[in-house]
Amino acid sequence: MNLDALYQEIILDHYKSPHGQGLQPDFTGEAFHVNTSCGDEVTVRVMVADGTIKEMTHDGVGCSISRASASVLHDLTDKQESNKFYELLDEFVELMHSQGKTEPNEDVLGDAAAFAGVSKYPARVKCALLPWMAMKDAMEGNTDE
Amino acid sequence: MSFDLANKVRPDFPILDRIVRGGNALVYLDSAATSQKPNQVIDAEAQYYREINATIHRSGHELGELASAAYEEARQNIAGFVGAKAQNLIFTKNATEGLNLVAYAFLNATLMHRNGQTKYAQYALNPGDVILLTEMEHHANMVPWQHIAQLTGAAIKYIPVSDDGVLELSEDLFTNNCKIIAVTHQSNVLGTINDVAKIAEYANAIGAHLILDACQSVPHLPTNLENLNVAAAAWSGHKMLGPTGVGCLFLSDDLLLGLPPFLLGGNMIENVTFEKSTYRSDNGKFEAGTMNIAQVIGLSAAATYLSEIGLDRVHQHEVGLTRKALTALLEMPGIRVLGPSEMSIRGGLISFEVNGVHPHDVSQYLDANGIAIRAGHHCAWPLHRRLGAVASSRASFYLYNTEAEVEQFLAAVSEIRSYFKVA
């Protein structure tokens, strides 16, 4: 079934055992986003200091795509430089808007490359982007800069 | 038996022959969102454009006369379909516009009353007044009332919904300060058919205006609005085999004559000078500007189509399909059905949760099998919160669905939990 291209093993694994789930009490920026069409929710918290994301945590309710996306985002950005998040964000947004026509850059995106199949399903792009957009707002709202 | 109906009507619906994702034949189980259209409706709309297109009620030429006559004939036909008089039927863009029209007309009446126009007293909303809704309302029958309540100072109260999706009706809720009661005839999430006759009895005892959301009832159940004794009822055309872009609003004589207009402009006036305008007193008061003539004519063809089959038969057919699906889903491991398990108070739709699998993923899995359902909160977000669900998946049935389609749906649902590795 071609559904497997959407629900890659990596995505289902992250959905089953998410990383970085559970909000930490100390943070410099926080954002809460809702997908208004389905009610899915995500909260992202970041602790940014000295140009580094010391900690990224998230929580929420949602579909496999949005929950797995938050988990992968944690793996990619936790304890990384702030700049790296923005590079990843550009790359990931471009991939999501590619309608399945772009090969993902696995070197940059890592596990997030598994979301390439999502871009063929316009209704699901929002699900994959939900935690990324929340993190973008959390980063902008942080008091470190 | 009743399943013959689908096979009889399916040739009228060309879209049902479509091949969709994965090379699958389309199984369309999303009629509660919008129904498919038979050739008779598509042709009626096209024929209007090909043969008599002209603006109505203004043009003195032959086409104008033909278009006006066809529009008013359509009004007559659709009014008859719901047991109402043509003079009480107003065309809108959709049910949402119909409900907003009523809400805003009450707001206008309130403002005019506050400016000293005492004739609007019985429609004015004031602090201390109550707008009574139910916890199972669609946003279209909740958000406008919340807005109007905020602007007028009236309070919103709710008739509660029980855990199994039934209204907990009690006469105590219908206090004398209730001015407006707005309820759905059939829930678009739970499938519950509400006891409108009982609610009308309580509403009339306190002199409140009862507004009915009839979106899920008029297309599926034999409905007689005059017998139901409601002050207003709104529904959309596209859910009853008609075109998009047309809805209906029934207004009782009281509201039709008493409420001020909502949209203002051409056609709805009686006299206009530079200083002021006066308005028509008939249903034209609520139909400003060029109307959706082609869609109204298409909708009339839909009403004729449904009348010829008979709504009793349509309802029975849906009950057969829903009972089959409901019985199987209630026994399936890891499935939670929202709404009553009792078929006698249910219409032709079922919302459900698959334990461990989000509704979006449920609908994606079904879509890969060619099965179209709806996932989300179905514009009833507060109801989902009330039932402890983020969202749900909904399968809805109509006259063209077959028993074989229900079986395909059930087989696919039973595979979902193992696909997502939660079973």
Quick description:
With 145 residues, chain A is of the alpha+beta class.
CATH architecture of chain A: Alpha-Beta Complex
Percentage of β-strand residues of chain B: 15-25%
Q: Figure out the total of helices of chain B.
A: 13
Q: What is the arithmetic mean of pLDDT of chain B? A: 96
EC number (chain B): 2.8.1.7
Enzyme class (chain B): transferase
Keywords (chain B): Pyridoxal phosphate, Transferase
GO molecular function, one term (chain B): pyridoxal phosphate binding
Secondary-structure map:
The complex is a heterodimer of chains A (145) and B (423).
Chain A: H1 9-16, E1 29-35, E2 40-49, E3 52-61, H2 64-77, H3 82-96, H4 106-109, H5 122-140
Antiparallel strand pairs in A: 1-2, 2-3
Chain B: H1 4-9, E1 19-20, E2 24-25, E3 27-28, H2 39-52, H3 62-81, E4 89-92, H4 95-114, E5 130-134, H5 143-152, E6 155-159, E7 178-184, H6 196-205, E8 209-213, H7 225-228, E9 232-236, E10 247-251, H8 253-258, E11 269-272, E12 277-279, H9 293-309, H10 311-331, E13 335-338, E14 349-354, H11 359-368, E15 371-372, E16 374-376, H12 381-386, E17 392-396, H13 403-419
Protein name (chain B): cysteine desulfurase
EC number (chain B): 2.8.1.7
Domain Aminotransferase class V (chain B): 27-409
Short key terms for the protein model shown above:
heterodimer; A: 145 residues; alpha+beta; Sufe protein. Chain: A; three-stranded antiparallel beta sheet; 41% helix; B: 423 residues; Aspartate Aminotransferase, domain 1; Aspartate Aminotransferase, domain 2; seven-stranded mixed beta sheet; four-stranded antiparallel beta sheet
Explain how this protein is built.
Chain A: InterPro entries: NIF_FeS_clus_asmbl_NifU_N. Chain A: GO terms for molecular function: iron ion binding; iron-sulfur cluster binding. The complex is a heterodimer of chains A (145) and B (423). By secondary structure, chain A is of the alpha+beta class. Chain A has a single domain (2-140), classed as Sufe protein. Chain: A. Chain A contains five helices and three strands; from the N terminus they run αβββαααα. In chain A, strands 1-2-3 form a three-stranded antiparallel beta sheet, covered by helices on one side. The two termini of chain B are 37 Å apart. Chain B is an alpha/beta fold and 423 residues long. Chain B contains 13 helices and 17 strands. Chain B is globular. In chain B, the strands form five sheets. Chain B has a seven-stranded mixed beta sheet with strand order 4-10-9-8-7-5-6, with helices on both faces. In chain B, strands 13-14-17-16 form a four-stranded antiparallel beta sheet, covered by helices on one side. Chain B has a two-stranded antiparallel ribbon with strand order 1-2. Chain B has two domains: 4-30 and 310-419, Alpha-Beta Complex (Aspartate Aminotransferase, domain 1), CATH 3.90.1150; 45-308, Aspartate Aminotransferase, domain 2, CATH 3.40.640. The chains are: A alpha+beta (145), B alpha/beta (423).
